[in-house]
Structure formats: structure tokens, C-alpha cells
Amino acid sequence: RFEYIESHMNDIIPYQDLSFEQQQNVDMDSLAKGVLKRGLRSGNVIDPIFPFMYLLITDGSESMASSPISTLYHKEGERTARQLYSAKNILTDIQFDRVDWENFDRTTKTEFLPNMRAWYAKHIWKCNGSMSRLNLIDPIKYPCPSCPCCSCPIEDKDHIILCPDEGRTKLYKDGVTKLDVWLRQQRTDPLLRRLIRQYLSGRSQTTMYTGEIRAPCRRTRRFGMDEFY
């Protein structure tokens, strides 16, 4: 059980008149100060200010104050994500740098519910609850890695998206339609929107560069597509 104890009561009440709990609080404060002072004298202590201290940058006319902690979190997160995507053969370093992570983060947070974001991350990292994954984790409970919808021998992350089962196919097409509507609402470039739509509708049978777009042009260069021909 926890009880609230007002701190520094010894500033206004003699120590011997304090309650037992208040005396304990004062004693702990004294012990903590003693440890901190010894650490400062010996140099065996981490500066409690960094990285929470604010930095002030000025050019003489304008000033900007900011804390480095958000930058440190961001850089450490970027380093960890880069290693993860590389280790799983999802993105190379060059491809990682080309992703618009800022807008990707903003879009997923505004358009996806938390459980959908979790599923999406697991799907990309190849650790979602497909039957092949469950069979690997618990072969006794999940003895067969086959697809429960179409009986394909292996249900992995790719099969979940490409499964020919009627119900799953309908869900997939509904998702493509909703994405296309959202792209239109966001005023996405018509060419890019069409390329995304035809690529998703092809379900691994086509690429974004087949169909009507067969050669680099000024508009495709704007998207960097000509680098992949």
C-alpha cells in the first residue's frame, strides 16, 4: 500500500516531531543527496541534464531552442529499422533512404487503427500469424502449414495477399478500391494512381511499368521510375 507523504516537511517542523513516514522520507532524501555528492566528487555519475537539456541556437537576430532527445530517439530508431529491413532482405540501404518515412508515419497513424498498424508491421517483417509461421512456432498446436482457405501447401505472408479463395479475393479487391478512392481524395497524381491501381489489381502478375507505360518519360522521371527500367 502506498501513502502520499509531503516532502521537505523538516523545513517547517523539527525532525523529532515528524511522523515515522515523514522521517523516512527525510532520511531517504539525505541518503540520496549523499550518494549524489560523492558521485560528483569522484566523477562517477552521469550528468542528469543531458540529453534533456535545451540547446539554444542563434544567428544574432533569431534564436531557436530545442532538446536533442527527440533527435537521439529518431536516429536510434532509424539505425535499428535500417538494420532490421536489411537483415530481412526487405530494403537495401539505398531503398531505405528513398522511403518517405515522415509521410508514411503520418499516413499510417491517421488512416490505420493500432491493430491494423501492428498487423501491417508484422506482415512486412514476415512474422505475422500465417499458418507457416504458427507451425514453426508451435507445431503441436498447428501441425499443418497449409492454407485453411484454399489448401495451398504453404500459407506464408505472400499467400495471404494472393490467396485465390473467393472470400479473400473479395476482401483484397475491396481494399484496392478503398485505396484508390483515398488516393483520389488526396489528389494523388493520376499517372501514379493508375500505376498503383494496375499493379495491385495484377496480384503479382504485373508490375507498375507494364501496360501503357513502357518507356521513360518526363512524368515517370518525376517519380524516379526510369531508374528501374
Please give a quick description of this structure.
By secondary structure, this protein is mainly α. The protein has helices at residues 20-42, 69-87, 93-98, 101-111, 114-124, 131-137, 157-162, 166-185, 190-202, 218-222, and strands at residues 55-58, 63-66.
Q: What portion of the residues fall into strands of 2 or more residues?
A: under 5%
In whole angstroms, how far apart are the ends? 68 Å
Tell me the series of helices and strands, N- to C-terminal: HEEHHHHHHHHH
Radius of gyration: 29 Å
Poorly predicted runs are none
Shape category: elongated
Per DSSP, the total helix count is 10
Oligomer: single chain
Percent range of helical residues: 40-55%
Instruction: Summarize the biggest pleated sheet.
Output: 2 strands, antiparallel
Strands, count: 2
Query: What's the mean pLDDT score?
Result: 82
Q: How do the strands of the widest beta sheet line up side by side?
A: 1-2
Quick tags:
mainly alpha; two-stranded antiparallel ribbon; single chain; about 230 residues; 10 helices; about 55% helix
Give structural notes.
- With 229 residues, this protein is mainly α.
- Helices cover 53% and strands 3% of the residues.
- Strands 1-2 form a two-stranded antiparallel ribbon.
- A hairpin with a 4-residue loop joins strand 1 and strand 2.
- The longest helix is centred in the first third of the chain and has 23 residues.
- The protein starts with 19 loop residues before the first helix and ends in a 7-residue tail after the last helix.
How would you summarize the topology of this molecule?
Layout: H1 20-42, E1 55-58, E2 63-66, H2 69-87, H3 93-98, H4 101-111, H5 114-124, H6 131-137, H7 157-162, H8 166-185, H9 190-202, H10 218-222
Antiparallel strand pairs: 1-2
